[in-house]
Amino acid sequence: MSSLKVKLSFSGGVELLFDNIKQKSIEISSSINPPNPTTMKDLILWMKDNLLKERPELFMSGDTVRPGILVLINDSDWELEGELEYEIEDGDDIVFISTLHGG
Amino acid sequence: MVRLCVICNKERAIVKRPKTGQQVCKGCFYYVFETEIHNTIIDSKLFKKDEKVAIAASGGKDSTVLAHVMKLLNERYQYGLELFLLSIDEGITGYRDDSLETVKRNQQQYDLPLKIVSYSELYGWSMDQIVKEVGLKNNCTFCGVFRRQALDRGAVMLDVDHIITGHNADDIAETVLMNILRGDVGRLQRCTEICTTGDGCIRRSKPFKYTYEKEIVMYAYFKKLDYFSTECIYSPNSYRGHARTFLKDLEAIRPSAIIDIIHSGEAFEIKKEVKLPTQGVCKRCGYMSSNELCKACVLLEGLNRGLPK
After folding, report:
1. What is the distance, to the nearest Å, from the Cα of residue B74 to the centroid of all Cα atoms in its chain?
2. Does the model's ipTM exceed the 0.90 cut?
3. Glycyl lysine isopeptide (Gly-Lys) (interchain with K-? in acceptor proteins): where is this cross-link (chain A) (predicted)?
4. Tens-place pLDDT, residues B235-286
5. Phi–psi pair at A68, nearest 5 degrees
6. In a domain, B25, yes or no
7. What is the H or E stretch that residue B256 is in?
8. Of A9, B49, B57, B154, which is least packed with CB atoms within 10 Å of its CB?
9. What's domain A3-98's architecture?
10. Does the beta carbon of A101 lie under 8 angstroms from any beta carbon of chain B?
């Protein structure tokens, strides 16, 4: 079983839920739920269990991210990449941006 | 599998537009985003040539993108506008002081004159002091009322009679929902207007009326625009927060819901027999008011007497 190196970025307020960190490189299993390859859904749950410091309800809603949090995978809207079903690849760059604040 | 942009059919698509469901590339996204705003401005006849316009700037995502886009469109389409940045310091430690630093950077980046007006100088009270006095309930009421007046007063100081704000489609849809939930018929009529007239004929427009918040954030991200993004420390219990959560859930199911709610709001007609408040002026300060005393004077009176509200 191999591992995947993924770079996570947080902005728009999301960073406050992750110890005020704006970027973090992580290493996760390529198959968190064997035999299936690791998907965004697995990643998000992994983040909740391993990285989220407080207020999980501000990051997640059910199985997915809270509505109002945008996700970009390699600089592309995750809605174009399959959202939760996207299979993570080694070297992926994933950005979480919250829109839930004043303008 | 590379998804191609549906507009140019050449480049890789990187955004799925909530407004239309189209998948577009970076270049085409910038183009449609900017052009739709330009069309909104032209169709609503928002500006006159050589007009002086104050951009209400908080350092947040909407006003930063607004400043950027207005400067861009003013040059691209020769609107002939003289643009200013107008900022309000409510006196909220740790929130407003940081975002004002962002506005000062925006002033450098966009090369626009900046004016900052504070609650302390206008009313003798900062929001921190107000919250200490009245507690954590109804703060947004004080802040909203005071900010509205503060923007008008700031505009007068700049000798400007047109203010533009970064209110986006999501904000306006939330307001429509709030007014329905509270049964506020008077506000429901006015809240979808793109341009309203305020005190002393100072007009107030919302060029982002039909612009989705998601697209504003994506635009700012790809263009690497510098903005400040934290929730006001006093806002968690606000009424609007509930409307926002509901709206976001609706958007997740059907993205067009946001624009649809705005169109519904625009289509509302009040029956002739319904009595609506009429507009006059405040006896004390002369600001526009539908009662003898304007809301700001009423609130200030309460504060100065040491009573909540």
Report:
1. 19
2. yes
3. 103
4. 666 788 889 989 999 998 999 999 999 999 999 877 777 777 787 888 988 8
5. 115, -10
6. no
7. none
8. B49
9. Roll (3.10)
10. yes
